[in-house]
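Technical annex B. To support the medicinal chemistry partners, we prepared a structural model of the target in complex with 2-OXO-4-methylpentanoic acid, based solely on the information shown next.
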Amino acid sequence: LDFDIRPNPRPTPAAERERILENPGWGQHFTDHMVTIRYSADKGWHDARLEPYGPLALDPASQVLHYSQELFEGLKAYRQADGSVVTFRPFSNAARMNRSARRMAMPDIPEELFVRALEVLVSTDRDWVPDQPGHSLYLRPFMFATTRALGVNQPAQEYLFVVIASPSGNYYARGIRPVTVWLSQTYTRAAPGGTGEAKTGGNYAASFAGQAEAVAHGCDQVVWLDAVEHRWVEEVGSMNLMFVLGSGSGARLLTPALTGTLLPGITRDSMLKLAPDLGIPVEEGKINIDEWQAGCESGEITEVFGCGTAAIISPVGAVRGADREWTIGNGEPGELSMRLREELLGIQSGTRPDPYGWIHRI
Ligand code: PLP
Ligand code: COI
């Protein structure tokens, strides 16, 4: 599939772009272009374009606006010391989008086409990739149902795939500091047989009330517990959770297993591969809130952190629930959390070797 290239006739002036890149914030500014590719059941993927970033025209009866057939992905492009630009594990995002697509009865997109779309956008808007350490260009591929129909008996026959890009600074404006998390026993993110392992907008729409409940209790993020017993730990906010048990040469990493109700994070998967290389054994298992509290109080659990593309790692410093509250560590990010973060950031920014071939040059 060839891309029809339609350059933006009025790109952001360089001085304005430089001003944005100095302090990009998170998810507020967008580059000069976007990629769009159409799908229809009879033609397959067609009409691939690079075009100026701007509003999309949608029929008000487009299925996505009523029944939320939508998927998205998130990954980053990083500037290397020599000025070149790379992305991190883009084929893993493509594969995950296709797994999400199967759950949402949406079409597969060939992995090569998904990655080509990222390459076309990032190479065109290359000047938007920040060069400050820790900053990057966040890439947001997404896909949704455009068929004009209010019937709910079958999935849409037409879809639009879009990629937009947003320069990003640090996800947490106040820098890396441990967050306080709220154990929600009111709201559930995902139930067995539901859509929890798909990266679909509805999961996030359903999460705002839980996040608001966390904030109302003075917490930063919500911890999602299982839908059946409301005590098995699944995720935190929009991140996977990692527990460090023990310390020093005896430390090991535990993360909730992918039971179908968790989003299979690419950062999570990367940590599970990198930690053993640093001599830290890893385990995918189960942990409930009583074990979490007891482990922290006995000192067996030494660090806890959330991990995801946007924040890389976000240390958890305190946990609060309706009838309990405890702390983890001493208010500073844990040593192993920061070591894993450095390791991953080092691979992404090209200052460390890339033993697994995760880096994809643009
Ligand atoms: N869990 C949820 C619910 C998410 O939305 C995300 C982020 O996209 C993650 C975990 C982390 O996934 P990744 O490491 O691929 O960014
Ligand atoms: C992540 O990248 O870790 C995310 O959770 C993305 C989020 C903004 C949906």
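Notes passed to the chemistry partners:
The chain has a mean pLDDT of 96.
The chain has nine helices and 18 strands.
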